[in-house]
Amino acid sequence: MSQDKYEVVIGLEIHAQLLTRTKLFCGCSTQYGEAPNSQTCPVCLGLPGALPVLNEEAVRMAIKLALAVGARINHRSIFARKNYFYPDLPKGYQITQYHVPIAEHGRLEIELENGQKKTIGIERINLEEDAGKSLHEGFPDSEDKTYLDFNRSGVPLLEIVGQPEITSPEEAVQFMQLFRTILQYLEICDGNMEEGSLRCDANLSLRPKGSSEFGIKTEIKNLNSFRFLQKALAYEAQRQRERLEKGLPILQETRLWDERKEQTFPMRTKEEAHDYRYFPEPDLPPLVIDEKMIRNIQETLPELPNDKKNRFIQEYGLPTYDARLLTSSRGLADYYEAVARACGLPKQASNWVMREVLQTLKEKNIDIKDYPLEPKYLGELISLVEKNVISIRVAKEEVYPAMLASNKHPQTIIEERGLTQISDENQLFNLAQEIVAANPKPLQQYLQGKTQVVGFFIGQMMKATQGKANPQVVRKVVTEVLEKAKKQTES
Ligand SMILES: [Zn+2]
Predict the structure, then answer these.
(1) Is the terminal CB of the chain with fewer CB neighbours within 10 Å at N or C?
(2) C-alpha triplet 319, 369, 397: angle, nearest 5°
(3) Residue 348: which of 316, 307, 320 has the closest Cα?
(4) Alpha carbon 108 to chain centroid distance?
(5) Burial bucket for residue 90 (CB in 10 Å: 0-12, 13-18, 19+)
């Protein structure tokens, strides 16, 4: 792509469903997966005369995000009606924000593959309501009927409009991943893209390299996984490039990603903002937020992913790779930290969490919050390896699985199963003598200069001790016994 004469310009628009218990303008539950239309009332069904009342919890969550991305919070923001017709929008308009959003001018710093950092601007954050859901499949008569479920109608959303400052599909994925992690750290959105609680639209255009003007963009709607985001943007960039090279025009339009065909296809020509006839919502007063509320929320903010990552590098001396992986979820980071503190061996703790713990989560298909082992037990296991009480092999293959199954203290398991590592030099030296004497052929090879057979003797030692011998001591005594035999034949 480096010889390419075009530059890719990408902007993301993210919709995050907030984890409030109730909807944005009524008291209906937001619980996902309930029976269709069981969580509705005159307000969220848009019946005439029903009046909206703003959910304060949603406002607090919006402020949290605004603070986390360094956005300016407007002390007075305005709700607006965005008018359009769609069967899942019975009011005929969506309540959103337009002229004055709740927050503006934020930013997010992502780290590129080469370790370079890049800041992507966030233009605005709007507080708005979600629409209902049209169900086009899953019913016996879905062929000729569409069903409507209004449980989602009125669920609070944050609409985050990113600046068009992303220059590759990979950067877009990085941005989206970090954004999701922040929402999860703040505990304001579960980030579940499959269930649609986090959704992403992307617009993309090309322009000649070095140009400061934007080309004509297309928008790709509903990219509900990181993989689709990456693939759809890569496809769209290539499609536009080919058209431009042939001298064909780019149409400003909304497109959808077809996962089966692995291509985007046109959905409709893009509306302009004026098509929506935005006007201030007459049923809601301006949203007023005072400094005190902002300060109170500021005090409750958790340490954010980038700060945590940098602290892990500083405080625990972890490589960037480890720090980034461990802070990719708040639960994982907290777990790691508890293990590291329990054993005082931060790098070993990181190795265990990144390999064994993540492997276990994957195998059991569970989240870190459901991981059964107490961090202090895992910390203890790591200490026991460090103190040579057990070998790393025994720790991984015997003690760790037994701990997972029983949640017993590692020391108990080691005692019950007699797994203590043998580090006694005299004992192992005697054993090495026996084993060398019992294997004259490999010994002969050693004496003829084939030093690789040391590995064979070490293997025999481990076998004889059922893997409990300390490998360093074994190597030492085996070499000693063999060298002694060599000297005897020479003299
Ligand atoms: Zn309702």
Answers:
(1) C
(2) 65
(3) 316
(4) 16
(5) middle
Structure tokens at 204: 């993309």
User: Rounded to whole angstroms, what are the CA distances from 186 to 66, 317, 464?
Assistant: 11, 26, 54
Residue 93 and residue 284: Cα distance in Å, rounded? 14
Q: How far apart are CA 375 and CA 381, in angstroms?
A: 10
Q: Separation of 206 CA from ligand 1 center, angstroms?
A: 43
Give residue 271's pLDDT: 63
CA dihedral 214, 219, 224, 227 (to 10 degrees): -50
Q: How far is CA 454 from the centre of its chain?
A: 46
Q: Which domains does the chain have, with CATH numbers?
A: 6-295 (no CATH), 331-417 (no CATH), 425-490 (1.10.10.410)
Q: What is the CA(151)–ligand 1 centre distance, in A?
A: 8
Q: Distance from the CA of 31 to the center of ligand 1, in angstroms?
A: 12
C-alpha of residue 152 to centroid of ligand 1, in Å: 10
| Interval between CA 76 and ligand 1 midpoint (Å) | 26
Inter-residue contact 336 to 309 (CB < 8 Å): no
* CA 155 to ligand 1 center in whole angstroms: 9
Label residue 129 by pLDDT band (50, 70, 90).
very high
Which pLDDT belongs to residue 53? 96
Render pLDDT for 348-395 as a digit per residue (tens, 0 to 9): 999 999 999 999 999 999 989 999 999 999 999 999 899 888 888 889
Model pTM greater than 0.85? no
Distance 42 CA to ligand 1 centre (A): 6
Q: Give residue 94 CA to ligand 1 midpoint distance, Å.
A: 14
- Taking the centre of ligand 1 as the mean of its atom positions, its distance from the CA of residue 341, in whole angstroms, is 47
Cα 50 to averaged position of ligand 1 atoms, centre (Å): 10
* Distance from residue 38's CA to the centre of ligand 1 (Å): 10
In whole angstroms, give the CA distance from residue 474 to residue 467: 11
CA of 454 to the centre of ligand 1 (A): 76
Residue 1 has pLDDT above 50, yes or no: no
CA 27 to ligand 1 centroid distance, Å: 6
- What separation in Å is there between the alpha carbon of 153 and the centre of ligand 1? 8
Q: Whole-angstrom Cα distance, residue 346 to residue 370?
A: 23
